[in-house]
Amino acid sequence: MKRTLATLFLASSLILTACDTSDAEYDTDEQSEPVEDSSGETSEGQADMNEHSNEDSDDEEDVSIDEPEESSYLYEVNENDIATIQVIEGEEANERVALLTYDDAPDNYAVDIAEVLVEHDAPAIFFVNGMFIESEEGQEMLREIHEMGFAIGNHTHTHQSLPSLSEDEQTEEIMKTSDLIEEIIGERPRFFRAPFGQNTDHVKELVREDGMVLMNWTYGYDWESGYMEAEPLANIMVNTELLRPGANLLMHDRRWTLEATSQIIEGLRENDYELVDPDLIRSATPEQSESEETD
Ligand SMILES: [Zn+2]
Known about the structure:
Blueprint: H1 2-11, E1 75-77, E2 85-87, E3 97-105, H2 110-119, E4 125-128, H3 136-147, E5 151-154, H4 167-185, E6 191-192, H5 201-209, E7 213-214, H6 230-239, E8 247-252, H7 255-270, E9 274-275, E10 281-282, H8 286-291
Parallel strand pairs: 1-10, 3-4, 3-8, 3-9, 4-5, 5-6, 6-7
Antiparallel strand pairs: 1-2
Helix pairs in contact: 2-3, 2-7, 4-5, 6-7
The structure holds zinc ion.
Zinc ion is lined by residues 19, 103-104, 155, 159, 195.
């Protein structure tokens, strides 16, 4: 049955082996669901929403999204697919958003990618592998990315399939990375993404206890043959039917991804997507973490 599931995911570009090519035979129950709704609607109906940037926004906006306070989260990760970014019930915010994320950072191109993002005033999350920030060089890259204002996520220490590890090892993979990140930038990461999107109950609990937001992704292509060049990659990232409001875009620290970044940002904005600021995203289950404080 797992094979069947895996095949389904393959068919819909939600490939388990997002970050390398090892076999995926693990429990896939938490994998992002394939998207059956393929209506590529890009009506102009919502085109008047502001493009969120750090510049002054139009006066119609009554919510200050430039300076989020503790209680001013506007978005959350859908808890069913652990990927889609949705407006928190009762909040007023643009639903037509997309989230940019870069995994396996900072390796070779993350700082360059961050610089391109800054040029475009585009927010994003960089998911960091702890093993990349053990060196002075890696630490300096992380510092630069953080200082440019980007959200930092935890992508485990050595990028193994977490379900194949003992609970102690899972803890080590996650906590070691958060501790290291905190040592370097002075704060713990607020986002967590498991290698291959493979989470366990233990991982979910740890992530919640440490105050992180768990997220997989909606789609990504930069590890697939045929998309390891800027042009086809930028094209599919913007024109795939999987792009819909709340899409969580997975990319990596790769050369072609760097080269495609400008085009991806511009293409999303041309399609009236606002790039969501990760600072506005809260955990999907904030009440749970509060209620567990007494345990
Ligand atoms: Zn990865």
